[in-house]
Amino acid sequence: MTDEVYPVPREWAEKAFVDADRYAAMYRESVEDPEGFWRREARRIDWIKPFTKVKEASFHEEDFGIKWFSDGTLNLSANCLDRHLDERGDVTAIIWEPDSPDTAGRTISYRELHRMVCRFANALKEQGVTRGDRVTIYLPMVPEAAVAMLACARIGAIHSVVFGGFSPEALEGRIKDCDSRIVVTADEGLRGGKTVPLKANVDTALLACPAVDRVIVLRHSGSAVAMQKGRDLWWDEAVAAVPDDCLPEEMGAEDPLFILYTSGSTGKPKGVLHTTGGYAVWASMTHQYVFDYRPGQIYWCSADVGWVTGHTYIVYAPLANGATQVMFEGVPNWPDPSRIWQVVDKHQVEILYTAPTVIRALEREGDQWVQATSRKSLRLLGTVGEPINPDAWGWYHDVVGEGRCPIVDTWWQTETGAAMITPMPGAIDMKPGSACRPMFGVKPELVDEHGQFLRGAASGALVITDSWPGQMRTVWGDHARFFETYFTTHRGYYFTGDGCRRDEDGYYWITGRIDDVINVSGHRIGTAEVESSLVSHAKVAEAAVVGYPHDIKGTAIYAFVTLNAGEDGSEELRQELVKEVRHDIGGLAAPEVIYFTPALPKTRSGKIMRRILRKIAEGDVSNLGDTSTLADPAVVDQLVANRPVIE
Ligand code: WTA
């Protein structure tokens, strides 16, 4: 790790919303007088009925519960649209850049977006969707994805967006878990010149979801797709005869806004539930301060709306803040590795927010792809999703940003709603690889294995000791699992699942997941999900999955597989197993390495010793730690001796 420091550039300190002194003062107020701090910050949202209560939260079992602004009412779609119309209706909200540079893009003003959202909201109502209903959205990166989400928010329906890279099986599980009876999709998605069969995937998923009686299909690629009579309806036909205006529902601050499924240590993915008021304040505030965003600036978050980064930093926060943003359908390296920088030049992007995996992949292609473009418009760079190694940080800073643009390395999670530990460009000196300092209202602590707080410079498990407005409120349908997952590892505190180091300056360095979640290219995969997919194959007896460091993906998946007696670990079987995982979850969860082994290292009580498997996968076999509790130590010697070579 490097301890290089990049001081706040003078011009940023002078004109940013938050400079170093203000950061210190605001942070202090936010933790010492949260009521006062949040009462003021919450004014950024238009409330229908003002709140009188601010924070009602406890992480303790006796009185467990999390509520913010609970007696206030609002509509988040009105905050993202209607309130901009008078003064900024003709300002561009979304500049849509399609997958192919040869296809025409679209520019959508706030007024147009408002009309699209109202019409789609009316279409949903016409299909019988009402307040509290769950709407599954499985769309490509097109403006209609934002439209569908905002239309749900407008009528009080709860959206559950499923990333287009998930398989029909994964989609099916998510539709069933939240009892959704309507799915919004497109004929096909387009990514890197290839098509993604979204409608066909929905059709497969729905074979096992009899409760779904309506599918709204956006015409996008224009390819012919099967339409089931009585169930499937084209988007354009659904909105053809509806009025242009739709009154926003008055929602309670604690009414659900969305469910987003994410992987955890155990079992199937959890439906993370976010509510309306606190999330709105939290998303809008962090977007303004972290990106120092002012209306008129061109902002681009390159995430997919299928992930939380897209929910917060493409849909709700920038639109609540009246931003003008680029929305990109494609991939960073197609038609060539210059694409992302060409898009920056084409739309004069000032603020770019992307992921370490993208930066590493493009760095590897060579500087010439970057240098072939101007990038003079860029002023601020951001990253999210996984730890960024100092080398990639340096390349982003020096080559992409030509040393001129601060980098905001934002640490947060699906569960946290928005950025939790992050620099602010005018306030916090940057250290490459460190997410730096806590956001207002966030109280991080590091704990050791006995649950003791660590003081000063230390490494431990990262917990957050008090509630913040945009925190998830429950796991859909399983409140006990919510408490169990996040508040029992270290009683009374929110457990993040991440390991972290704090240095002598109080800077936080996230070291990665310490639970059984693998972060592959910034996408969370539960080891249990991959293992259950592998063992569902008839020839597999047992499987254990761990992560190992990977140049581009950050972490990749390494599977140890034992086969039933008499079966051989052939290349063909390896391919079948990869196919199985793609089928059950999606390509993003496919193991990079499958190691067929006659046995797995287990304790005498039969528990697989993952710690040892992790070391073997990392290639760090000189020090395997304590192996005295193993039932059969010879298993480890064999595993080490026969391990496959990873290029
Ligand atoms: C990791 C994405 C280091 C972390 C917003 C976390 C990071 C998980 C960073 C959440 C960062 C995210 N530095 N690690 N700047 N940002 N992570 O739910 O392990 O998809 O727990 O939310 O990504 O992933 P999720």
From TrEMBL:
The entry's CoA-binding residues are 191-194, 309, 333, 521, 582
**Post-translational events:** Acetylated. Deacetylation by the SIR2-homolog deacetylase activates the enzyme.
The residues covered by the AMP-binding enzyme C-terminal domain are: 529-607
Q: What is its EC number?
A: 6.2.1.1
Q: Which residues carry this modification: N6-acetyllysine?
A: 607
Q: Which reaction does it catalyse?
A: acetate + ATP + CoA = acetyl-CoA + AMP + diphosphate
Give a yes or no for keyword Ribosomal protein in this entry: no
Tell me its cofactors.
Answer: Mg(2+)
Residues binding Mg(2+): 535, 537, 540
Which residues are recorded as binding ATP?
385-387, 409-414, 498, 513, 524
Tell me where on the tree of life, at the top rank, the source sits.
Answer: Bacteria
* Record keyword Metal-binding present: yes
Ranges for domain Acetyl-coenzyme A synthetase N-terminal: 23-80
Q: Name one Pfam family in it.
A: AMP-binding
Domain AMP-dependent synthetase/ligase span(s) in chain numbering: 82-466
Which key words tag this protein in UniProt? Acetylation, ATP-binding, Ligase, Magnesium, Metal-binding, Nucleotide-binding
For this UniProt entry, the molecular function terms from Gene Ontology, in alphabetical order, are:
acetate-CoA ligase activity
**What is the similarity comment for this entry?**
Belongs to the ATP-dependent AMP-binding enzyme family.
Q: Which HAMAP family match?
A: Ac_CoA_synth (MF_01123)
PANTHER family under this entry? ACETYL-COENZYME A SYNTHETASE
Query: What task does this protein carry out?
Result: Catalyzes the conversion of acetate into acetyl-CoA (AcCoA), an essential intermediate at the junction of anabolic and catabolic pathways. AcsA undergoes a two-step reaction. In the first half reaction, AcsA combines acetate with ATP to form acetyl-adenylate (AcAMP) intermediate. In the second half reaction, it can then transfer the acetyl group from AcAMP to the sulfhydryl group of CoA, forming the product AcCoA.
> What is the designated name of this protein?
Acetyl-coenzyme A synthetase
Query: What organism is recorded for this protein?
Result: Sphingomonas brevis
Give the organism's phylogenetic lineage: Bacteria, Pseudomonadati, Pseudomonadota, Alphaproteobacteria, Sphingomonadales
